[in-house]
Amino acid sequence: MKHIKIALYFFAAIVLLNACQKEYSIEHGEKTTPTGTWQFNDSSQLFAGNMDSSYIDSSTSFNTKILHLIGKSLDGTQTFNLELYAPSFITGTYKASLFQSTFLYTAGGSNIYQANQLIGEFTVIITALTSTNISGTFSGSALNSSNKLIQITQGKFTSSFSNTGSGGGVSSGVLGDSSGRCKPVKLAGTYSQGVALDSSNTVQVQVTVAKAGTYSIKTNTINGVSFSKTGTFTSTGVQNITLTGSGIPTNAGDQHFTLSYGNSQCDFIINFAPPASGTLGGGGGSCTSFAIAGAYQQGIPLDASNTIQVQVNVTTAGKYSISTNIANGVVFSKTGSFTATGVQTILLTGSGTPVAPGVQNFTVTFGTSNCSFSLTFLPGVAPSGDYFPLTPNSNWTFSLAAGTTQDSMYLTVINYAPVFGANTYKTIAQYDVPPSGATDSAYFRKPGGDYYQYMNFSDFIQFDKPVFGEYIFLKDNVVNGSTWNSPNINGTISGIPITGFFKMTILAKAVPVTIATFNFPNVIKVKYEFFVLGSPTPLATAERWFAYNVGEIHTSLTDGISTIAYDIGNYHIF
What we know:
Strand content: over 45%
Number of strands: 41
Number of domains: 4
Radius of gyration: 29 Å
Oligomer: single chain
CATH topology of the largest domain: YmcC-like fold
Distance between the termini: 22 Å
CATH class of the largest domain: Mainly Beta
Structural class: mainly beta
Shape: globular
Largest sheet: 13 strands, antiparallel
């Protein structure tokens, strides 16, 4: 279906780079013809030539840019084509195994050498990159014209280069005013010894930006705590930036922090208050004046109704953090401030998803005081029903996140039941919005709690010939964290045998989800990874959410660099 194909076509394009010659378009439509040189060795012969052009193509999917380095041999009969893939380009290493580099060396229409992720590791290092010049080295595994694996060594290149629009580079400027005089920082949040910082603990600082680009502003780590912020300055001038804190303060009292941005630094002080102190009821043994609220069952996430009540005799007022250990995937905690001393009752709220039934033991900790209690978790429920309705005429409309109406798609169950092998399937047809003719279709069946899709895998991976089969894309009869694999998918790409498979993982089960104005109380979240056999790195990763009695409500796809997502916009189940 459309939203799955988008990601996998991107990866297939990388794999098949050697199968077709692109019509190169220069970024922003401006062609450059700088001069430079390249060379490499195949262990028996040195190849060398001139660089005709180097430029960036930013008109690709997923906001991934392509850096093209194109040249000719000295006699003009052979073509050098080195390509790098990244959201922006800086000095550093680009590896074929991370889908960051490919290499093609040809004569006429024939490949002399080719290198990509399916062949082996091929590494390119950009050693220097300015707005006018680029240089680097390369080496690694390649296939020669006889499909034999050889090693490319001593590769290097240098070229004139236009870096306009390739990501902006790194910003520059100073903290404070243009003379570097620091302004007082603005602190937000409360700071107490032993109490973890959260999103409310921030530091606002003034920056005078001289050159737009990416930035990283951070402090040193003091007293177990640090502040940081990264991003991109899109303009110059005075700007205010808010850094978020993290860590757990280890001591009380004044602590001196140094804030750094490039070569500019500022100092500021935070006073960490001593924490509240006291003892838990039943300290050292079973918690006293203790009560449990809420239901506890394997596979059902805890929410605000899951609480435990503990008693505290406060001897010193102040900020507190009271929590349990993590047991069976569950923890109880509460932070706040005691404004008075004496005996008080506190409710700790639970979080997490129980992974097993039975009795579990918990220890509550407040400073140096602790007490314990036990909690019984019920066994998980049986399969809960239909998470992918296939009743005739049921329909769903999906919208692309940050997209337009033209990016939407309409899916509906049609009256067509094909038989593949011994199995009968139902059909979901896909239409653009507004609907005209069907643009695609997919076939499903769901015996028991297993949901199958029958498909031509060549629609997703550009095999030389069609490869048909089915796989289980959803299970509603397994617990959270369960995994399973599709059967192996075997085919060839440009004559090269390829074996791949999908791996599915239940990320969450029976969780509530809100999308726009829809509240879905019972959702299963599944992660999908596509692997080439023998590679530990998935070529594509997707996440799909299925709501009880509704069907699929969310799909997101990533290539490790960028993500696209579709969310439910409307639905009607018959």
